[in-house]
Amino acid sequence: MKQADFDGKGSLIRWTETPGEEPARVYVHGLGSVSSVYHAHIAARPELAGRRSLFVDLPGHGISDRPESFGYTLEEHADALAAALDAAGLSGAELIAHSMGGSVAIVLAHRRPDLVSRLLLTEANLDASPPPAAGSASITVYDEETFVEEAHARVLEAIGPAWAATMRLADPRALHRSAVGLRRGSVPIMRDILVGLAIDRVFLQGESSGELAGRQALEEAGVRVVNVPGAGHNVMLDNPDAFAAVVAGQD
Predict the structure, then answer these.
(1) Could you tell me the pTM of the whole model?
(2) Which three-class secondary structure state does DSSP give residue 97?
(3) pLDDT for 97-117, tens place per residue?
(4) CA distances in angstroms from 13 to 2, 29, 119, 127, listed in the order given
(5) Neighbour-count burial of 69, counting CB atoms closer than 10 A to its CB (0-12 exposed, 13-18 middle, 19+ buried)
(6) C-alpha Rg value of the chain to the nearest Å
(7) Angle made by CA atoms 168, 174, 178, in degrees to the nearest 5
């Protein structure tokens, strides 16, 4: 386990990693998740062997610290992730990022382009105010204090055992603020940032999640959109073979 200060107050963002060649692959989880749970089985596959791989837990999640004074906006998460990559001595890394983590990765590529050479985004949030069916809505329907004091346990029960297994490791206040920040979006908004980036960009969409909104405009801007059969939001769990092939560039 490795760590770096992310707020100037001694709060630490932490990650585990496996050694290998550069450029490193950096795996970033979604809201209420843990990077290793969603991605370690992908990084271990033979077609991805030999590359340095980092599994970073964002502030408030997993093994990272959860300061109450932190805002947990997308920009603040991105800056914390930058602190981890700086401490790891990385530049030009490939970011494999899921859901909210994809939004954070987009913002990071905008704020610190030296750190990112490729974005592989799995059903990343691209717009503010996602639909009511989005997972963040089950959290932001409550105000912060109500969620922390009363609703956290109810949400864990309602979302089912798979997501609850990692969400219960996230600090409730950090979870709520992260969800609020995700629904607020970044400035500029994530979709506009993604369109304007000049690096390699791939967007994975689970087939059962439906058509990606604004797909044509993204593809016209050079974003490669891949529909993954037999998969929903958690593409890397639903169809790991297809997911690993895209990461490896073998699809």
Answers:
(1) 0.97
(2) strand
(3) 999 999 999 999 999 999 999
(4) 8, 13, 21, 26
(5) exposed
(6) 17
(7) 105
